[in-house]
Amino acid sequence: MTQLTQIKAYTKPMIANLAKLGISNLQGLLLHLPLRYIDETHVTAVRDLRMGESAQVEGEIVHAEVSYKPRKALIARLEDASGQLTLRFLHFYPSQINALKVGNTLRVYGEVRSGFFGYEMVHPTCKAVGEKTIVAETLTPVYPTVAGLSQASLRKAIGIALQQQGEMHETLPAALYADLNLPSFAASLVALHHPHPEVSLRALENKSTAHWRRLAFDELLAQQLSMRKHYARRRSVSAPQFKRSKQLISALLKSLPFALTSAQQKVALEIEHDLTQAHPMQRLLQGDVGSGKTIVACMAALQCVENGWQVALMAPTEILAEQHYRKMLSWLQPLDIKIAWLTGSQSKKDRDTALASIANGEAKLVVGTHALFQEAVRFKSLGLAIIDEQHRFGVHQRLALRQKGQPEPHQLMMSATPIPRTLSMSYYADLDVSVIDELPPGRSPIVTKIVSDARREEILQRVREACLQGNQAYWVCPLIEESEALQLATANDTYALMQEEFPELRIGLVHGRMKPSEKQAVMAEFSAGHTQLLVATTVIEVGVDVPNASLMVIEHAERMGLSQLHQLRGRVGRGAAKSTCILLYQNKLSETARARLKVIYESNDGFAIAQADLQIRGPGELLGVRQSGVPMLKIADLERDVDLLEAAKAAADKLLQSYPAEVERHLDRWMSTAGELVKV
Ligand code: ADP
Ligand code: MG
């Protein structure tokens, strides 16, 4: 990989500026692709200008003045053989006044608008033209840049890189891309940095030209290849093999008050099979809110325990971990299986006892929060790590848990944020995925209502009635992302208001700043039906399971993300009672807020909602990538380029089979900056 410092033409300041963009070598520079383009390849006659389009015009300045009405502005008129065009500058330098002197010949570029005196351009770029100035031969690229690095110098730097033929070598067999009607890598780079003037600006900007598609394909292919390699690596690592369970699982199933759905049975079989293998499972178990993932995880745990190994079950919040602990106790205590409980907040004594039983192997199942992967936690023989709400954890945390086993433990990750197919095909290609695609029977669908905050009185009345009839309700406080202190104040205020409003009800409050033991106490009260109304922040978003709760009111629903609303709403509708979720909004909804609420209103299907979320927010948010460390796609777009994703998937298989050298070259080019974290 050629570093910029190896090329004489790059000066020190230039290299320093490029470093600000994260570019240190020629490959990085070549793959720094334009955001958009401007067409300076021909000069348009004033007569032929069209409103709203950008164009280049050449002519002589015939009038120039600084006017003060309605505000200070530099106004000039440029004339060519066909007519006159107004140029308007609302802020300007003395040098511009000079450049726009009457008699000067200029070439200006800008968007055409209609002004009082006919066509005008506001803040066009202007160039003085001499006798011999030629028009550009290719479209002019506009690059993403940083302060201190001008477009002109960036263009120059990239121009130099484009001279280094060796850097643009082809990584793929020609037949492979030709079959897909894609051009070569080198041709694509040249065409994207310096497009032919005949290419449609729109096609370039949509990234739908063959050249853009070639690079998007390459990027997707690199992702597929690297995921596939990680997958292969995993299969070469050994893990403990667990025989099918003969007793524990059937004993558990017999004790349940329900039968598994066929979707649960299907995924349980997939997991059971994985655990009999000699290499570590890495399976993502997806299932919509309330689909019953916990019992499936418990079955996997039992297979592991029956084979004499330990299981760790990790949840992202104390509330959820606590709830899992209780549920596991109720399921496993009758089977005589010892469970340890580990959180950051327990007393030293409890903690030491737990740690000892984990280390000597007495505890077969360990349930906890992030505390599970801390240094002091030593397992006797960790065989399976189960991670609930996996998108809430960072890559490093999952990696740390995996390293607690020797040999490498199996991993089961669970998520209620359904991942649209294109996303799981790309970002999760190194995982096996199981989907629970059906809800347990007997759930009546949740009715969602969108109600203006102006009708709050009515809603309060409704909460009162529901609670007095023996149902339970959640009141979710508005989300205040900017400030935890404000969030706390809001929760306390809401709680006080509710107490004032409903003196006849027993009301609880739970928020993120409470001590874990306090949270647990509040949740236990609510679970047991002692409190009727629970005022809560979004801490209850994941996992909380109180079947008798059938009404939820979410304040300022417009501030929340779609997946978040869906998760919150999933806290009701868990029992047989008909459930309602009321989304209160503040008037003056923005267009996107309106669109989002509409999605939630119309759909109860987590997959449809996630798909919409993907369109509105992009993959980073959905994957929780801010903390996951997965390198994001820069060129390809999973919505637009589905066909390329499919093609890349097929091509990856072919290359890995027959073209090992090409695979390495390709990964070298594309993954040089992506880092090692993909494999987790
Ligand atoms: P999630 O997939 O959201 O984690 P849970 O595992 O918490 O869902 O299950 C939601 C509720 O459904 C729990 O109370 C659980 O005991 C119950 N449940 C799970 N499977 C079934 C089933 N097959 N039939 C009826 N109820 C079930
Ligand atoms: Mg769950």
Automatic annotation (TrEMBL):
<protein>
    <recommendedName>
        <fullName>ATP-dependent DNA helicase RecG</fullName>
        <ecNumber>5.6.2.4</ecNumber>
    </recommendedName>
</protein>
<keyword id="KW-0067">ATP-binding</keyword>
<keyword id="KW-0347">Helicase</keyword>
<dbReference type="InterPro" id="IPR027417">
    <property type="entry name" value="P-loop_NTPase"/>
</dbReference>
<dbReference type="InterPro" id="IPR033454">
    <property type="entry name" value="RecG_wedge"/>
</dbReference>
<dbReference type="GO" id="GO:0043138">
    <property type="term" value="F:3'-5' DNA helicase activity"/>
</dbReference>
<dbReference type="GO" id="GO:0006281">
    <property type="term" value="P:DNA repair"/>
</dbReference>
<dbReference type="InterPro" id="IPR047112">
    <property type="entry name" value="RecG/Mfd"/>
</dbReference>
<dbReference type="GO" id="GO:0016887">
    <property type="term" value="F:ATP hydrolysis activity"/>
</dbReference>
<comment type="function">
    <text>Plays a critical role in recombination and DNA repair. Helps process Holliday junction intermediates to mature products by catalyzing branch migration. Has replication fork regression activity, unwinds stalled or blocked replication forks to make a HJ that can be resolved. Has a DNA unwinding activity characteristic of a DNA helicase with 3'-5' polarity.</text>
</comment>
<dbReference type="InterPro" id="IPR012340">
    <property type="entry name" value="NA-bd_OB-fold"/>
</dbReference>
<keyword id="KW-0547">Nucleotide-binding</keyword>
<dbReference type="Pfam" id="PF00270">
    <property type="entry name" value="DEAD"/>
</dbReference>
<keyword id="KW-0378">Hydrolase</keyword>
<dbReference type="GO" id="GO:0005524">
    <property type="term" value="F:ATP binding"/>
</dbReference>
<dbReference type="InterPro" id="IPR004609">
    <property type="entry name" value="ATP-dep_DNA_helicase_RecG"/>
</dbReference>
<dbReference type="InterPro" id="IPR014001">
    <property type="entry name" value="Helicase_ATP-bd"/>
</dbReference>
<dbReference type="Pfam" id="PF17191">
    <property type="entry name" value="RecG_wedge"/>
</dbReference>
<feature type="domain" description="Helicase ATP-binding">
    <location>
        <begin position="274"/>
        <end position="436"/>
    </location>
</feature>
<keyword id="KW-0413">Isomerase</keyword>
<dbReference type="InterPro" id="IPR045562">
    <property type="entry name" value="RecG_dom3_C"/>
</dbReference>
<dbReference type="InterPro" id="IPR001650">
    <property type="entry name" value="Helicase_C-like"/>
</dbReference>
<dbReference type="GO" id="GO:0003677">
    <property type="term" value="F:DNA binding"/>
</dbReference>
<dbReference type="GO" id="GO:0006310">
    <property type="term" value="P:DNA recombination"/>
</dbReference>
<feature type="domain" description="Helicase C-terminal">
    <location>
        <begin position="469"/>
        <end position="615"/>
    </location>
</feature>
<comment type="similarity">
    <text>Belongs to the helicase family. RecG subfamily.</text>
</comment>
<keyword id="KW-0234">DNA repair</keyword>
<keyword id="KW-0233">DNA recombination</keyword>
<dbReference type="Pfam" id="PF00271">
    <property type="entry name" value="Helicase_C"/>
</dbReference>
<dbReference type="InterPro" id="IPR011545">
    <property type="entry name" value="DEAD/DEAH_box_helicase_dom"/>
</dbReference>
<keyword id="KW-0238">DNA-binding</keyword>
<dbReference type="Pfam" id="PF19833">
    <property type="entry name" value="RecG_dom3_C"/>
</dbReference>
<keyword id="KW-0227">DNA damage</keyword>
